[in-house]
Structures are given as structure tokens and as C-alpha cells.
């Protein structure tokens, strides 16, 4: 009797464990599905489907035979309709499942000090471009590979620096209309073409550069930095959402959070060390932006200036 009772207790405990694991897995999946759908067009469609199911139940309860029959016929087409209506969201969900980050692992390809140096250069470039109201679009590759996007631009494979970014997005540069792609701590390509967002809820007032940033963040886990050419406002797009009006510390913290995930921030001592390393770095592109500015001003002169005089730091465009 005692042995039988022991076996029953073990089976009962195993049943509770199996049921608990089953419930946790289902709850985890439902939670992530809700998080994926929240704030998107899929959330509105899900609300409509819930209303449809409630009406179907009510028609059956109230014995509304004709309405119930019609709704059941429509319900038979449900799987096909769901695939058609949720095609973009289903694709995005499958991409999320395929990413390591979906399961809670952050992509950290560099040491914290190196990441801070990279972010410091991005913040410095964004601040300069914002003050000058020069449009910019920088994509930080995370876990989703951007090889196809990189193939649409010009390969650079250069160390990231504020001066190089300022030169790339200078209006006279052939690459300024596209996006710069950052992989780890290097600018691998510039002048790249990004997919535009197909979200109809963003409104017609959003410009093409911001639509491209949202589209890139919707189709990948990339972090996208945008500088508005019209207003100089700095924004960051991530996971189909955009945060606007970021400057200095707020921008640095947002970029660090996006790149490092939930890792602890860099200490003040390490930050100062990284800043000193940035200041000590001499970039070969440091004088390119003044050179291009001077060249552009020289071209507007009534008499063309000789090539040797176009790179002088004192040359300025006419008033």
C-alpha cells in the first residue's frame, strides 16, 4: 500500500510539473505575441477578430440562425484571411524568433570601452549635423545581418569617426542621400538604400528619411540614428518605434542601451579613459569637411579660384 501511494504521489507531482511547464511556455509565447502586436496594425486586427468571435458566440446563444450560419461560413476562411491580413506581422514575428535576442541574449561584439568610443563619435557627429541642419541616416547593425542593404551602397570599411560621418553626409558628397551602415566599430558602407515603412499610422508628415529609418527598424533589429534636414531634430528608431528630440546625454544613453542591451553602464573612470582615447585619435578625414565647404564656396565665386587656393581654412563662401 505504501509503495502504491508513493508511485501515485510521484506521478501526481510529475503531472503538476508538466502542467506548470506547459502553462509557462504558453504564457511566454502569448506575452511575446502581444508585445510584437502591441502598437502595430496587427493589434487593431486582433481586436476586430475578438469582436467577430463575440458576435459569433452571441448569435449562437440567441439562436440567430441566419446570422450564425453566415458567420460560421466566414469563419471557415479564417486561416487564409489571417495569413493575408497578418503577412507583414507574421514575417516580422518569424524573424524575431530566429534572432538570439528574442530569447534574451544581447549582442555585444565589442568591449564596453570600445562601444563607448563608438557611441561618443556618433553623438559628436549627430550634434554637429544637427546644429548645421544637415540630414543624416546611420544604421547600427546588431544581430540581423544587413549584407543585402550594404550591397546597395559604396563599400568603405573605415574606422568610425565623427569627421568621417560629417563628410559622408555633407550635401556636396555623392553618398549623402543614402544611409551609412555601422558594423561593430567600422563604417562598412555608405549611400545605402533602406526599405520604407509600410505602416500607414505614421502619417504623411513623416519624411522619407524617417520612413526609411522606421522601415529598417521594422524589418531588422538594427538601431537607426536619424538627423532631420529640416529641423535638425535627432531621432533614434528601434523595433518599429521612433524616439525624437534626443541630444547629448539622452542620445548617448539611448544608443548605449540599444547596443549593449541591459548591461550596466560604463563607469566614469572608463568613460573618461575612452574620451581621452577619442581625443587622441587623429583621423585622416579631419580636414575634409572644411575642404569641401571651402571648395563649394569657391565654385560660387564669379571668377573660378585656382585649385591650390580652395583648401585654405580661411576661404569662405560669399555672403
From TrEMBL:
Gene Ontology terms, MF aspect: adenylate cyclase activity; ATP binding; diadenylate cyclase activity
GO biological process: cAMP biosynthetic process
EC numbers, comma separated: 2.7.7.85
Catalyzed reactions per annotation: 2 ATP = 3',3'-c-di-AMP + 2 diphosphate
UniProtKB keywords: ATP-binding, Cell membrane, Membrane, Nucleotide-binding, Nucleotidyltransferase, Transferase, Transmembrane, Transmembrane helix
Class of enzymatic activity (EC top level): transferase
Family annotation (Pfam families): CdaA_N, DAC
Transmembrane stretches, start-end: 13-31, 43-63, 69-87
Region listing for Disordered, in residue ranges: 292-319
Biased composition (Low complexity): 308-319
Subunit structure as annotated in this protein's UniProt entry: Probably a homodimer.
Function: Catalyzes the condensation of 2 ATP molecules into cyclic di-AMP (c-di-AMP), a second messenger used to regulate differing processes in different bacteria.
Entry's family note: Belongs to the adenylate cyclase family. DacA/CdaA subfamily.
Protein's UniProt name: Diadenylate cyclase
Lineage: Bacteria, Bacillati, Armatimonadota, Armatimonadia, Capsulimonadales
Amino acid at each position: 500500500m505504501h509503495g502504491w501511494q508513493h508511485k501515485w504521489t510521484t506521478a501526481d507531482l510529475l503531472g503538476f510539473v508538466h502542467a506548470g511547464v506547459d502553462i509557462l511556455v504558453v504564457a511566454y509565447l502569448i506575452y511575446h505575441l502581444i508585445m510584437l502586436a502591441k502598437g502595430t496594425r496587427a493589434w487593431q486586427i486582433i481586436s476586430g477578430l475578438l469582436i467577430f468571435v463575440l458576435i459569433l458566440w452571441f448569435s449562437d446563444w440567441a439562436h440567430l440562425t441566419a446570422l450564425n450560419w453566415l458567420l460560421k461560413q466566414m469563419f471557415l476562411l479564417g486561416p487564409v484571411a489571417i495569413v493575408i491580413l497578418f503577412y507583414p506581422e507574421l514575417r516580422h514575428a518569424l524573424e524575431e524568433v530566429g534572432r538570439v535576442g528574442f530569447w534574451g541574449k544581447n549582442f555585444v561584439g565589442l568591449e564596453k570601452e570600445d562601444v563607448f568610443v563608438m557611441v561618443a563619435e556618433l553623438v559628436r557627429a549627430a550634434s554637429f549635423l544637427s546644429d548645421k541642419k544637415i540630414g543624416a541616416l546611420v544604421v547600427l547593425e546588431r544581430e540581423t545581418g544587413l549584407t543585402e542593404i550594404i550591397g546597395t551602397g559604396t563599400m568603405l570599411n573605415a574606422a568610425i569617426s565623427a569627421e568621417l560621418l560629417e563628410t559622408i553626409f555633407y550635401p556636396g558628397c555623392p553618398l549623402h542621400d543614402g544611409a551609412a551602415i555601422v558594423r561593430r566599430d567600422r563604417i562598412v558602407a555608405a549611400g545605402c538604400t533602406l526599405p520604407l515603412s509600410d505602416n500607414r499610422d505614421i502619417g504623411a508628415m513623416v519624411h522619407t528619411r524617417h520612413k526609411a529609418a522606421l522601415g529598417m527598424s521594422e524589418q531588422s533589429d538594427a538601431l537607426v540614428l536619424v538627423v532631420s534636414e529640416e529641423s535638425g531634430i535627432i531621432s533614434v528608431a528601434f523595433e518599429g518605434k521612433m524616439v525624437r528630440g534626443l541630444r547629448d546625454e539622452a542620445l548617448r544613453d539611448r544608443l548605449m542601451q540599444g547596443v549593449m542591451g541591459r548591461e550596466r553602464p560604463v563607469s566614469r573612470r572608463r568613460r573618461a579613459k575612452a574620451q581621452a582615447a577619442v581625443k587622441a585619435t587623429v583621423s585622416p578625414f579631419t580636414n575634409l569637411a572644411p575642404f569641401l565647404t571651402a571648395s563649394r564656396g569657391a565654385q560660387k565665386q564669379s571668377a573660378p579660384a585656382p585649385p591650390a587656393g580652395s583648401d585654405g581654412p580661411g576661404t569662405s563662401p560669399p555672403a
